[in-house]
Design a protein that fits this description.
The chain is of the alpha/beta class. The protein has helices at 2-7, 10-15, 40-49, 78-81, 104-107, 127-135, 174-192, and strands at 32-36, 55-60, 71-74, 87-90, 115-118, 141-144, 164-166.
């Protein structure tokens, strides 16, 4: 939702008070999408992106291929792929290694027509640098479901930026999540009893 709304300049449209005459917007079809992270969100996102015939590069801790991705590269090569990204989605866990991952220097590597979406954790992005980048129109747009600080204070500069969509990290209501949690508990109880595999396993060393 965030990717499509930004590419189609929905933030500007919903703020408009008069009929626009200038043609704006970019298509998602055939674009290059870079996803930082290789967990469940990344896997589901690739499935949802498939009808748009995008090229997907996964950036993760290792270069082990991710099924469904056109390319998988280690995080050490992030600087190499950022200039190629039409869409950058952050979907990695918050760890000491990902804190400040997208700082001012890396934001400057993105194309002025690139879209940034953060559905990971706010700590991955330098918020002040992001504000500066969108104000200077060095990004097509940014969608942030997570921020630093969180919650974002009233009247924070991001709220007033026409190129930015801020969502409050609460898209899933209890009514939506309860059935999913119940199914996960059911599967893990079966696994505990020896009939199946555990789901949602956390590595205490990695922290996710």
């Amino acid at each position: 939702m965030l990717v499509l709304s930004l590419l189609r300049v929905v933030p500007q449209r919903v703020r408009a008070t008069s009929w626009a005459t200038e043609q704006q917007g970019r298509s998602l079809y055939g674009r290059h999408v870079v996803i930082v992270g290789a967990g469940g969100i990344a896997i589901e996102l690739m499935r949802l992106l498939a009808p748009f015939d995008v090229r997907v590069t996964i950036v993760r801790r290792s270069s082990e291929p991710v099924p469904g991705a056109d390319r998988t590269v280690p995080v050490e090569r992030l600087d190499e792929v950022l200039p190629e990204a039409d869409v950058l989605v952050l979907a990695a866990a918050a760890t000491p290694g990902t804190a400040g991952l997208l700082d001012a220097r890396r934001l400057a590597l993105l194309s002025a027509t690139a879209v940034l979406v953060n559905v990971a954790r706010g700590s991955l992005v330098d918020t002040d640098a992001l504000v500066e980048a969108v104000r200077a129109e060095r990004l097509w747009g940014a969608g942030v479901d997570v921020t630093t600080p969180e919650p974002l204070p009233d009247r924070h500069p991001l709220f007033g930026e026409p190129r930015v969509v801020v969502t409050p990290h609460q898209a899933d209501t209890p009514e939506m999540t309860a059935p999913l949690l119940a199914e996960r508990i059911r599967l893990n109880v079966r696994a505990f009893l020896g009939d199946g595999e555990f789901v949602g396993v956390v590595d205490p060393h990695d922290g996710y």
